[in-house]
Amino acid sequence: MKSVNSEAPVDVVLIGGGIMSATLGTLIKQVQPDWSIQVIERLGSVAQESSNPWNNAGTGHAALCELNYMPEAPDGSVTADKAVSINEQFQISRQLWAHLVRTGALPEPETFINPTPHMTFVRGKANVEYLKKRVEVLKDQPLFAEMEYSDDPATIAEWTPLIMKKRNPRQRIAATRNISGTDVDFGALTRYLFDDLQRQGGQLRLNTQVTDIDKQDDGTWKLKLLRHVGNARSTIRARFVFVGAGGGALALLQHSGIPEIEGFGGFPISGQFLKTTNPKLVAQHQAKVYGKASVGAPPMSVPHFDTRMVEGEPSLLFGPYAGFTPKFLKTSTWFDLPFSIRPHNIGPMLAVARHNFDLMKYLVGELLAGRKKKLDALREFMPTAKSEDWELITAGQRVQVMKKDKEKGGVLQFGTEVVTSTDGSIAGLLGASPGASTAAPIMVDLLKRCFPEQYPAWEPKLREMIPSLGTRLSDDPAAAAASLADTAEALHLPA
């Protein structure tokens, strides 16, 4: 076996070739262009796991249509706090992308983002009443000002014909629509960001896996690398390490030995979509339409019927159908889950299993569901769906965060969590949705946490790229309208 050693330290090592590493690398090069950056990706190209367009639904998560961000409380009330927070975060991503388009770092926006109305569609009296309450709460929020509501079948049929064609006329229905929604090809966006990073001197090492991470006496991190082509082994030292390896992040953070990772575990959930490229169907549905989740279903399994635009080709997706494998990545091994168990996290993991019976029941039901049941779920959205028009594709793996909880012993957290060492020299991202859509604010927050001494000097440049940084657009209707119009112009979206 060939052995190569490289001990020259670099300023930043980004582990994983997905949207998170691409965004962080982009931000660092903008604010500190003299820093050296290396990206380590174990596969042969970037954006092949969660950032791959067929491994996610491409929804620019802005809480315009996702009901799980506004759950109904036991007393029947709904609040807008979470939905507004998610939308605020997405606006930061939009502002960054708009800046990068204007400066030429990103190509024409149509290559990675396209206008696609975001809709919510519900059936039954109770769900219609819930949707009305949601609209009432959101109507005065500046970032949701354009939301339309209708319970008129003819109006909904104008918005999306496939959903209403041959639907039972006695069924009570309602929908909301926001035409400022988007479909995002996060795979293309990731590739473009890495292309620009390399133009600015960043290095990308493909087919290279990080096998271990050790803290050195001088404060740097020593990474052991295995290049899959030729089995060449090497090492690299870094002053700062970001672990943006998706489902692989937990194991690498455990290898690092930082105490901050203690108590964290991962719960893997797989998924599938039904997909069609039938031009007659695609032409009749121009929206991302979200419904209500089944009891016990994780947020990533909320049913939705989506327009997709990938590499210029339109298609429709429906799903996801959740499943379970012990893998943490599509291209990893069946031993990921058992190998992730440590004495410090087995308690929280067992507590999660004990307190999430509805989720376990839901996943078992999904695993046992055949093609007929999957098509029946599709027909709840599209009554005229024919089996021959649809193929089943496998989506990406998601690893939900499990962590300690004083009251329950352990909780399953839906969302993302940044774990950083006390000295800020290493950080990693755990969790799933709405991850990619909120990559920009997550990475800006990471810069603030890991580089407190440098951040004040970086802030003016960050504000140049992200004008609303540090403010709430929701508190200023005029600023919200101006920001939406500005980014819409740059990204060629409806104003």
UniProtKB/TrEMBL annotation:
Keywords assigned by UniProt, alphabetized: FAD, Flavoprotein, Oxidoreductase, Tricarboxylic acid cycle
Catalytic activity, as annotated: (S)-malate + a quinone = a quinol + oxaloacetate
Keyword set includes Oxidoreductase: yes
Cofactor requirements of the protein: FAD
EC id: 1.1.5.4
Gene Ontology MF terms in the entry: (S)-2-hydroxyglutarate dehydrogenase activity; L-malate dehydrogenase (quinone) activity
InterPro entries registered for this protein in UniProt: FAD/NAD-bd_sf, MQO
Pathway, per record: Carbohydrate metabolism; tricarboxylic acid cycle; oxaloacetate from (S)-malate (quinone route): step 1/1
Superkingdom, natural source: Bacteria
Gene3D superfamilies referenced in this protein's UniProt entry, alphabetically: D-Amino Acid Oxidase, subunit A, domain 2 (3.30.9.10), FAD/NAD(P)-binding domain (3.50.50.60)
Any GO BP annotation: tricarboxylic acid cycle
Keyword Lipoprotein found: no
Listed Pfam families: Mqo (PF06039)
Family per record: Belongs to the MQO family.
Protein name: Probable malate:quinone oxidoreductase
Organism: Cryobacterium tepidiphilum
Organism lineage: Bacteria, Bacillati, Actinomycetota, Actinomycetes, Micrococcales
